[in-house]
Write a structure and sequence with these properties.
With 161 residues, the protein is α/β, with parallel strands linked by helices. Helices cover 42% and strands 24% of the residues. About 4% of the residues have low confidence.
Length: 161
């Protein structure tokens, strides 16, 4: 089942789709890489975890399914790129298609939520180049995924606890 972020709707459907506790996985979808971040079981903190270099959906989805199994993930948050003026970007459809294809690959057994990701890549690059970053890396996709997930947790999950 796929949910879309919509500021006009209440959070109740989203909150009811996820059990109260359990890890969530966020995916920052790109054409070359997928950034993955994972929440703790109480859904308080998002942590960057992994960057998958894209090859094809079957292989990428297989890697994601394995990661879900190894980490007991109960829900997925996919970054949904929307402009500040709420217009769509070329990557908007890419993220939507990715979420739909992943949902089908996983047999529609785990809820997937497309959550707006405004400025998360910018925030990730800022952190990566800041003085507080211990290690600068070439790619920030996993950090961007952690921002997406942390925004989701702050917006939806903390109000449920």
């Amino acid at each position: 089942m796929i949910f879309f972020s919509d500021p006009e709707n209440t959070n109740q459907e989203v909150l009811n789709s996820f059990p109260r506790f359990g890890r969530l996985l966020a995916i920052d979808v790109g054409t070359k890489r997928l950034g993955l971040a994972l929440s703790d079981a109480s859904r308080f903190l998002a942590t960057p975890k992994l960057i998958i270099h894209r090859s094809n959906n079957q292989k990428d989805f297989g890697n994601i399914r394995q990661y879900i199994s190894e980490n007991e993930v109960i829900g997925i948050v996919v970054g949904h790129p929307i402009q500040l003026d709420n217009s769509r970007t070329p990557m908007t459809k890419t993220a939507e298609d990715f979420a739909q294809d992943l949902d089908e690959f996983l047999g529609e057994k785990i809820p997937i939520f497309l959550f707006e990701e405004r400025l998360t890549s910018f925030e990730a690059r800022e952190i990566n180049t800041s003085e507080i970053s211990r290690k600068r890396t070439k790619h920030v996709d996993d950090i961007a995924a952690s921002f997406i997930l942390q925004h989701f947790l702050d917006y939806f999950c903390q109000s449920k606890n």
